[in-house]
Design a protein that fits this description.
seven-stranded mixed β-sheet; globular
């Protein structure tokens, strides 16, 4: 640091002097992220007034877009040139955004400056001069690379013209379709359309039909439309199906000789009653030394699906099976997932197994990971296994009761170590043969579910530790981990403020275990209360999302230092990756795999998991709206489950269907949205509607196209 700068910093400085010093310093450190404390130290800003003045200037520089705040009180010189390259995202309200390739905050692109760019397009943007107090804006000057842009909607066909009417949130205009590109589509058909051009002076983009999904309102057409909307597959490629048909299910004597043989050990599967893809089986036997040998046997998909094969490429693209309300869209062809790989009873099957030697205290005394051949003796539905647990009677009762005892100890130990107990029920629909919802029920996890869960968690954790836990000074080999970061401190504070209104408290500081223990206490306290579902939902929102990564940071929610996914290779691609890497490392003693390759695969898998989850939620929402569409005019008790600037979301107590009371219908006052306190507050009468408030509502409208339920408030 120059003597001149040091001398200046030691005395009272005027704002202009300090501003010039800061600018010079940022240019000197161009490209570096500068924490506030570092700025204070380097500029010798030792007095409180100088520090406050510095923070004021930094705020102004940020407002003027001269610097970016990369993280909390961490700054970097904004080196935006006049032009930048990045990704365009379209919104239906015309407030489109551009995200620079080199990172940084998204920049607003008004519709008039979008050059008809579409979501995902790679574009070049020129920046407008920034006006003080306004967001920076830009203009698309070149579309470098078009993204694959398909839209789902309903066809409206006239004489000599056609349009696709979309409900897309990314497109404000309907798509014009020349009649020669209609693929015999008719008015009222649900269709998938690709945009082929958008002439400069034209209001509407021009598209071609690539698939007709069926008649609007028909169940299959609507479910396929949801999948297409999220860019997910709704059919299986014929060439991949043919490749699966060619796979032999024969198990050779040579293959059996390579494996540990568990066919004589009592083994069974426990799954949902409608499941066909049995990923996992459990075996148990008492050893001569009085201990228990428990086997967690997982379908050996990697034996049948070589890396880089046609089937593998399709599985990788999908990355996960998708579970909609009324169907499963599998990651693997049906011949593999429901037959060859599925651990069906009374059939010899190839498995990859984790074998535990345990005592009566559920302590694992030793374990091994081996390729096996198994033969399941019985296929249990959860309900059947639960009956054995509750009555002590039924097939394989000794084995099930012993496994349940061990699982309960494992579970208790996990919560003692700081795991969080999000033990939520699932809302399920009873569906008739046409896919129409005729009833709602709640699926609650009982001991049979928890038995399976604990042994799967134990197997996943053991596999992760086998590869990840290495002696000091040694580097662990690459493995996809399932990671879960600590809760965001700000979200925890918000959760604490929210639950205080119901009279509950949580710790927001302290050790990981302190915080998780207090969250568990909260979840216990709300059990059976009317606010239970709401507080659990808000608590889950305070958590980070679990994801896949080769960079292990542990799993906060499970309180595991090492955790991966190994137990579901039929329906999750990361498990298949883990199987292959285990074989490479354990059986073949192979060198570590490429971290870059597997990190990219992890990112893809995390992304596809999120998309599949969004599609699943959309299918549930569709069925909720369909179910409630026959109950227009009925009144229900509900609870405010969401507060936004455009209205109140209310969840009906009886069936958990959620709808909205639009702001326009709250006509007794002018309401303002208080984001911090999760409420709407009337300007004149000061009446408030807060998250968790009980309301009586009437079902007003049900829009299946928009998957939208509207409620109206019934005044008491």
């Amino acid at each position: 640091m120059s003597k001149k700068r040091e001398k200046k910093a030691g005395k009272r400085m005027k704002k202009k002097e300090l501003a010039n010093m800061l600018l010079a310093f940022f240019h000197e450190k161009e490209g570096e992220v500068l924490p506030l404390k570092y700025i204070f130290d380097q500029l010798r800003l030792t007095t409180h007034p100088l520090k406050m003045l510095c923070m004021d200037i930094l705020e102004e520089l940020k407002q003027d877009d001269y610097i970016n705040e990369i993280d909390n009180h961490k700054y970097r010189l904004n080196t935006h040139g006049v032009e930048m390259v990045g990704t365009f995202q379209r919104t239906h309200n015309g407030k489109n955004t551009f995200t620079p390739e080199e990172g940084g905050e998204p920049i607003l692109i008004a519709e008039r400056n979008s050059a008809h760019a579409m979501s995902g397009d790679k574009v070049r943007v020129a920046f407008h001069a920034k006006r003080r107090g306004h967001e920076p804006q830009g203009e698309v000057i070149e579309i470098i690379e078009r993204a694959e842009n398909t839209f789902v909607g309903t066809l409206e066909v006239g004489k000599g013209y056609a349009f696709l009417l979309t409900e897309s949130r990314t497109l404000a205009n309907d798509i014009f379709i020349p009649t020669n590109l209609l693929k015999r589509g008719k008015s009222g058909d649900k269709a998938v359309v690709r945009i082929i051009e958008w002439p400069e002076r034209s209001k509407n983009p021009i598209g071609e039909v690539i698939d007709i999904l069926g008649r609007s309102g028909e169940n299959d057409a609507e479910m396929h439309a949801i999948l297409a909307e999220f860019g997910l597959p709704y059919s299986y490629p014929a060439n991949v199906e043919r490749a699966a048909e060619r796979i032999s299910e024969e198990i050779t004597a040579e293959e059996v000789a390579k494996r540990e043989d568990f066919r004589q050990v009592t083994t069974f599967t426990i799954d949902p009653k409608d499941a066909k893809d049995f990923d996992d089986a459990l075996s148990i036997q008492k050893l001569p030394n009085g201990r228990w040998e428990v086997g967690v046997h997982i379908a050996d998909v990697s034996h049948y699906v070589p890396e880089g094969s046609l089937i593998d490429k399709e599985a990788l693209k999908r990355a996960t099976s998708i579970y909609l309300v009324d169907r499963t869209i599998p990651m693997l062809p049906e011949r593999l997932c429901n037959y060859i790989c599925s651990l069906r009873p009374d059939e010899d099957k190839l498995a990859y197994s984790v074998i535990f030697e345990m005592n009566d205290k559920a302590e694992v005394l030793q374990s091994r990971i081996v390729h096996t051949i198994i033969r399941s003796n019985r296929r249990f539905a959860y309900e059947e296994a639960q009956q054995v647990i509750e009555t002590g009677e039924g097939d394989y009762k000794e084995e099930i009761l012993q496994l349940n005892k061990l699982a309960q100890i494992l579970r208790e130990n996990r919560f003692k170590a700081g795991a969080i107990n999000f033990d939520r029920y699932e809302v399920k629909f009873e569906i008739d043969e046409n896919g129409k919802p005729i009833g709602v029920y709640f699926k609650v996890a009982k001991e049979a579910n928890k038995l399976i869960e604990e042994f799967m968690l134990l197997a996943n954790r053991t596999v992760a530790e086998k590869i990840g836990r290495v002696p000091k000074g040694k580097k662990a080999k690459v493995l996809p981990y399932r990671i879960h970061d600590l809760p965001d401190p700000e979200k925890l504070e918000n959760l604490s403020s929210f639950i205080a209104r119901f009279g509950y408290k949580i710790r927001t500081v302290g050790t990981k275990k302190d915080v998780s223990t207090s969250i568990n206490r909260l979840l216990d306290e709300v059990q059976g209360r009317k606010e239970e579902n709401l507080i659990e939902t808000v608590s889950i929102r305070a958590m980070q999302k679990a994801k896949y990564s080769t960079h292990n940071i542990g799993h906060y929610g499970l309180a595991f230092d090492y955790y991966t996914h190994f137990t579901s290779p039929i329906r999750r691609y990361p498990d298949l990756m883990v199987h292959r890497l285990l074989t490479k490392y354990i059986d073949e003693g192979g060198r570590s795999a490429s971290q870059q390759k597997y990190e990219e695969l992890c990112e893809h898998s995390s992304s596809m998991e999120q998309i599949a989850s969004n599609a699943e939620r959309a299918s549930i929402k569709y069925k909720q709206v369909e179910f409630m569409s026959e109950r227009i005019g009925k009144t229900y008790q509900g609870v405010v489950s969401g507060v936004t600037e455009w209205g109140l979301y209310v969840e009906i107590n009886e069936n958990k269907c959620e709808g909205m009371i639009p702001m326009r219908d709250l006509d007794d006052d002018y309401y303002e949205f208080d984001e911090k306190n999760y409420c709407l507050r009337g300007r004149r009468k000061r009446n408030t509607y807060s998250l968790g408030d009980e309301l009586t509502i009437r079902v007003a409208r049900a829009n299946l196209e928009k998957k939208q339920l509207d409620f109206e408030l019934v005044k008491n």
